[in-house]
Amino acid sequence: MLPPRLVRRLAVHPLLLGGGAAMVVLSPILGVLAAAASPFLGNWRPLRLLWVSMSYLVWDILSTLGFAGLWVGSGFGAKVQSPPIQRAHYAILRWFMSGLCNSGLRAVRSWIEVTDFAGAEAALSDHRQPVLVFSRHAAVGDSFMLVHVLMTRYGRRPRSVMKALLQWDPFFDLFGNRLPNCFVAGAGQELIDGIRRLADGLRRDEALLIFPEGANFTEARRQRTIKRLEAGGHFDAAERARALENLMAPRPGGALAALDGAPEADVIFVAHTGLPDPRSSIDLLRLVPLDHAVQIGLWREPAAGIPSDREDRIDWLFAWWCRLDAFVTERGGERTSVAVPAVSPS
């Protein structure tokens, strides 16, 4: 259960920040232990994972302190919604995402390669109109990676729907509640309403990022999704879901709410492969280092090309999901372990 905001800010957050700082102070000792274990596990795996963990703690603590400073500088919250303070929050968020992702990728020996289809990069870089970003959801840290790419590569200000439990983390609690984001406790109508609110009034330089699958891909979830569609009498949708190899069938409610809320926005579809998807700590140790690129494919659908009828929009969304699935499948799915060349736009 999530404590009230005042309890989080006055009691929970100081304890968590203090605990994180203590871990950073102890990191040299932890580093010695990780180095001692590395010969038995190979490729400096324990040290690499410690590097990633300590990087997160350092960036998390420094960014949270930055947000706290902005609260004081805004008159103890009186002007926290003013444009200069909002810009400063985005600057800290960009700094956090850039530092964390770049450090993490170096630690696991990986890098990002983007393949642009149908002018997606030009649409993202052109801030004359907002964009909706519909992405697959399939691996550890893919939401961090995509926010990092949107902010640092294309200069977009992201809006996101996040799980309410993330507010235990001081960093997410502060930036998530001060910037245009939405925390939800679960799926269903609450999620759809949250997406619609974020899409409504989306500014020209902003991007609303959503994951229509609703959860990280696993084969078990994929099978449950197919059974759910069949149980609901959606047999055509179940057949289309069964044809997907590396993606789950999209839940259309959130995507349709975003389209309704921002009818003038282009849609950018995102597929990615190459990030690890461990099921346990042992899996994570086995998968690191990656030694391959994280492949990202981007496609643009202009607002004028999006169907207006609800059922046509659902068919359109499934058709795009098949295209994303093909991108991932062509690159070996989530089992890709070597770098592959980027393909030419088609």
Written overview of the protein:
Helix 7 (170-178) links the parallel strand 3 (157-163) and strand 4 (182-184). It is built from 13 helices and 7 strands. The chain has one domain (5-335). It is globular. It is of the alpha/beta class and 346 residues long.
Strands, count: 7
Distance between the termini: 48 Å
List unreliable stretches of 5+ residues.
335-346
Number of helices: 13
* Cα radius of gyration in angstroms: 21 Å
Mean pLDDT reading? 92
Shape: globular
Write out the strand line-up for the largest beta sheet, numbering strands in chain order.
1-7-6-2-5-3-4
* Biggest β-sheet strands, sense, barrel: 7 strands, mixed
By secondary-structure content and strand pairing, the structural class works out as: alpha/beta
Strand content: 5-15%
Total number of domains:
1
Task: Provide the succession of SSEs.
Answer: HHHHEHEHEHEHEHHHEHEH
Helix residue percentage: 40-55%
